[in-house]
Design a protein that fits this description.
The protein has 133 residues and is mainly alpha-helical. The protein has helices at residues 33-36, 40-81, 84-87, 95-102, 104-132, and strands at residues 89-90, 93-94. A two-stranded antiparallel ribbon has the order 1-2. Strand 1 and strand 2 (93-94) form a beta hairpin. Helix 2 (40-81) packs antiparallel against helix 5. The longest helix has 42 residues, at 40-81. It is flat.
Length: 133
């Protein structure tokens, strides 16, 4: 019976590494020769557009979360505070139970779709502004 091969530890060479510069916000594509020729005002405009995109995406996220919480609290209160829902029986199960089990998922899906579509629209607008220069 042959002996299994010995394990060998492979590591990167221990040379002095330069740490990558810290970035904030969105990642822009690396500069090419054509973009290197742009002046400082174009770079300032890119920074303004990127900041505006971050701000709009943050506003969208916070608005979506706030709306989601409001709708979920309202739905929970309706299920809890409307006693008629307990008396209505569908397939042997009280309607309040069915709403509690299945009503939240469509709300989650609607908010997710709205958020993704609006975030994509924000990014399309950003690209249009950036490429217009």
């Amino acid at each position: 019976m042959t002996e299994p091969p010995r394990r060998v530890r492979v590591i990167a060479p221990q040379t002095a590494r330069r740490s990558a510069p810290a970035t904030r916000g969105i990642a822009l594509p690396p500069s090419s020769a054509a973009s290197a020729a742009r002046d400082a005002s174009a770079d300032d405009a890119d920074a303004v557009y990127a900041r505006a995109l971050r701000t709009s995406q943050l506003r969208l996220a916070l608005g979506t979360v706030a709306g989601f919480v409001v709708v979920m609290v309202a739905l929970t209160l309706v299920i809890t505070l409307v006693p008629v829902l307990d008396r209505v029986v569908v397939w042997g199960v009280p309607l309040s139970w069915l709403l509690h089990a299945f009503a939240f998922y469509p709300v989650i899906a609607v908010f997710a779709v709205l958020y993704v579509r609006t975030a994509a629209r924000n990014e399309r607008r950003y690209r249009q502004l950036r490429d217009r220069e």
